[in-house]
Structures are given as C-alpha cells and as structure tokens.
Amino acid sequence: METIFDIEEELKKLPAKPGVYIMHDASDEIIYVGKAISLKNRVRQYFQKSRTQRRGPKIEQMVERIVRFEYIITDSELEALVLECNLIKEHRPKYNTMLVDDKTYPFIKVTVSEDYPRVLFSRTMKKDKSRYFGPYTSAGAVKEVIDLLRKLYAIRSCNRVLPRDVGKDRPCLNYHIKQCQAPCQGYVTKEQYQEQIQKALRFLSGDYGGVIKELQEKMKYASEALEFERAIEYRELLQSVKQIAQKQKITSFDGEDKDVAAIAVDGEDAVVQVFFIRGGRLVGREHFFVHAMLEEPPGEVLSNFMKQYYGGTPFLPKEIMVGEAMEDVQLLEEWLSEKKGQRVYIRLPKKGIKEKLVELAGKNAHLVLSQDKEKLRREEGRTIGALKEIQQLLGMTNLSRIEAFDISNISGFQAVGSMVVYEKGKPKRSDYRRFRIRSVEGPNDYASMEEVLTRRFTHGMEERRQLQKKQKDEEMGSFTKFPDLIMMDGGKGQVHIAQAVLERLKLDIPVCGMVKDDNHRTRGLYYEDQEIRIDKFSEGFKLITRIQDEAHRFAITFHRNLRGKEQVHSILDDIAGIGPRRRKELMRAFSSIEEIRGATTEQLLRVPAMNEKAAQAVYDFFHRKDYEEK
C-alpha cells in the first residue's frame, strides 16, 4: 500500500500564491497540469461539489481519477504560464488538450558574434553563437523593448554585413532621427558600439534600475515642459520595461542541463528542493527530507546531501546551482567531474535570473518543510529507512535501485513477465517493463524467467554500447540503468536462474529471492544460499512485501489484459480439431471458458458442429493435470 494522500487535508495547506499544480492518478501518472494566480483558490475548485454541474464531462472524468496532487510555487503568473508549458511538453498529460508550441513564446536575440551586433525578435532559439533572452509571453512587449533598446543605445536594425559594407550606401532614416550611430558609415568605432551593446545585454540580464529611473525622469521633464505626447511615449515604454522585467526564470536562455538545489533548515529537520532543468527548461522537481545536526550550517548540510544524492544518480548535469556557500566546493567539483567524465561546475549565483531561480527553489523548500515535516519523516522511514534496513540485512552498501521480476501464465498460455523498479524505496513506474514470452512452450516458469532476464540485460548492455559510441551526454534509459539488487518472486530455484543469466552475461549484480509461506505470504529473503527471516513489523519487511505484491500485480494485470483480448481464440485454437466454426458454436453455447472447462463430453456433444472426437479433445484439453492458474 502507498501512503494515503488525504485530499481534504492537503487542500487546507495550499498557499494563496501563483504557481503550477500537477494532478496524479492511481498509477501515479501525471494526468493534468495547470497554472493558477492563487493555488489555494484554483485547486480547491476541482473538488467543490457545487461546481460539478458547471464542469464538462471530460473535466469531471479527470477529477474522478485524481488520487493526489502536487504544486510548485512561482513568483508570478507569467512564470507559472511558462512552467506549465514546459511540464505539459515533458509529461504530455492525458487531459491537457491545448498543448502550446514554442513559437507562441518569443525570444530576444542578440547577435554577439557579429562585429556590430543587432538586437532581434525571434520565434526560435537555435544553437548558434547568439545570446537569447526569454521566452516571453507578450510579443508586443518584446517588440517594444527591442525598439526601446535601439532608441536608448542607438543599436542598428539593418541587415548590412559590417564592416564589409561600410560606406557602400547612404545612412538610413534611423541615423537622421538619432536612433542609430551609423556604423555602416564608420561614424562609430567597434569599441564604442560594443559599449552600447554591453549596456543592452545588462538590461536584458535584469539590470533595469538605471533605465527605469532614466525613463521616469524623462517622462517627468517632458510633462513639466508640456510635451505630453513625448511624456506618453516614455510612459508606455516604461510600462513595457516593467512587463519585461518579470524575469523568465523558468526557462534558461543557454539551453543547458542544470540542477538547482536549495535547502530549508529547522533545527534537526531540513528539506532540500532540487529543480531539474533539461535543455534549458525546468521540467521537474523533487524534494528530499534530510536529518541535520543541531547548529550545523546549512551549507554543510547541503554539501553532505549532494555527496549522497549525486553519488547514487546516473546522470550529472553540467552545472549545479546552489543556495548556500559550501567549504568543499572545489573538491566536490573534482569528484563530480571525474564521475561524469567532463567538467561539472557548482555555482552560488549572486545576481540575475540564476539567483532568482535558486531563491524560488528555496521558497518551495521552506513551504514543504513548514507544511509536511511529519509527513516527510514518516515517508522517509517507509522508503529510505526501509531501504537501509534491507541494505543492512543483506550486508550491502549504496543500495538505491531494486528491480523485481515475476512470471504469470495459465498452463503456459500467453506467458508474460514483469519487471518493476523501486528507487530510493519508491516505485519508479516509468521504468516498469512487460515481456511476452517468446521462446518457451508450456508452463515453464524457470525457462520463462531465464528469457526475461536475458532479454532485459542484453538490451541494457546494447543500449550502453550505443551510448558510448555516440559519446553524448545523455540521460540513461530504463534498460541502461542496472539495479543494485535483483529481487525474484520465489526462492532458491529462481535465484539460481538469475545468477546463471548474470554469470553468462558477465554481470555482477546481487540477487535475492522473496520467499513466501504456505499461505502465500512473504516470510523472508533467500540470499547467498540461505533464508533470512525478517521482523514482520519492520519497514524493511513492509517494503519487500510491497515490491513482491507490485511485481505480481503488474504481471497479472498484463496477463489478464492479454487474456481478455486473446484467451477465447488462443485456448480453443490450441485444441486439435477445433476450428473457427466450432469455436464460435462453443462460445454461443457456453458463456465463458470456465463453463466449457466444466462441461461433460455429453454436454459438449449437444453443441452444433461438434462430434465425439472433437468433444473428447476439448474435454481432455481442459482436464490435464497441469491446467491450473498460477
């Protein structure tokens, strides 16, 4: 059983702040992502009975499937909008029908690679030598700001190739109205022009104070001089600057992979919030409950967390932005760089968009800590704590990822295998896999398991080889990641099958069996040729039971789905002398396979198109000793 999510209780904790809410169903799939000016008001509306009549059938269906929700607070509705877009693109929730494309959000492009750079409007962000700022949600405001930058810093807007085309044509109108310095005529040096470009870059990076102050003064002077049209122009430009000043922390302009880690500490309790930025987009987050020593500096707590977290994760970003100063930053960088195979940077942002993003992660960490301290402590006990119990029981270290396997079949019919994955004590459903048995005839669980394990790890080894050939910094897939421990749904026999497969593939992965008693209840683990009994009231035992039940449930569900589609045809087709006509007549006379199985030869003979030989064949098939459900 998973932790019960009390929706009514969680609704009371919602903050009256802008942000994004994420709805999950019973299988923990994300089914809807939305944004809100006030999370407290918006999310509550979904669960108010008075609104049932006003909701459409699709929304009502979605609400019925919601089992839990989570949320990420932002500093503005604008940021919530962009984050909502990122999360929808990453997770593609079932009930989000209006998927927004990148072209909806404009960027500001500065062609810094040119001798005389330009500031341009762009609908796409390419991997060229230009610098991009955004995306922004108001195309009109972006165009006005570009126009403002050209007016303030006399930046050219033409397409002339400079300095090649210097002096080839007369200066344009912008020069005569003092909105360009005419570099096309050589009236400004490259160095002087670059100074103006640097001012524009500082403005786009968030340094708005000076420009806002300058515009306010110009608006005041124009008003005092009774130049009202000029004053209105400055006022409108000022409004555009203020609108663009809502910094787009949610999407980075450099398109890199980054993690953002911030910590909130309260005595011995601490929460670390990690934002995951992939390809320049904030695509997810996770929070971790951490035990801290009294009066231990936050930077030291964060440093210890990073050693444990990044020591166990297979993917490392190029940059990790942190919210606290740490003494051993250089040592951590060296360790992570060696682990990744290329340079990893740990930075403490002091200004600009990056600082605001770290600050946002910190706000979310403080919110989680203040609202869910006891809940997190219990959750850690049943996940990380349970994993540590198993680790200690088996004499292992660094246990994080567990893969469990099970086989399901009826007399070998439609045999299937399941692979479920638990990481840090929690199910990772995105890595679950199903296998239809191809090479085994009849009910042979050992041979079926051998096929499943061989296919799983052969596939994983091939993925790893392909990844090495590409020599790219890519996050590994579910097959590429190998487990720290394999759990088999069975005892000695299943464990030895797994060990034989691993030995043949030259893989060194510990294997244990989840042993059940005569009443089909978990009783212990079979490990290194001996059975280990476990305290039935311990969190470790409960986790093992959950893993075993989940592996069995996943296999059975897959098998039932296949049976529902193919059982009638496949089982009867396996009987000699039963063709399409007789199969059809049998299903007309009997409502289910179970009724056919329970029929006598005399009852079978009453079915049209059946003769004695066919009736006896059907009876014999269903009364074999090995015909029983697993």
As a percent range, the share of strand residues is 15-25%
The main sheet comes to: 8 strands, mixed
Q: What is the H level of CATH, i.e. the homologous superfamily of the largest domain?
A: UvrC, RNAse H endonuclease domain
Number of spatially distinct domains? 5
Total helical elements: 19
Number of strands: 19
Instruction: Give the second-level CATH assignment, the architecture of the largest domain.
Output: 2-Layer Sandwich
Rounded to the nearest angstrom, the distance between the terminal CA atoms is 23 Å
Question: CATH topology of the largest domain, anyone?
Answer: Nucleotidyltransferase, domain 5
Radius of gyration, CA atoms, in whole angstroms: 32 Å
Integer average pLDDT:
82
CATH class of the largest domain: Alpha Beta
Shape: elongated
Which secondary-structure class do the elements indicate?
A: alpha+beta
Unreliable residue runs: 98-103, 565-569
Helix content: 40-55%
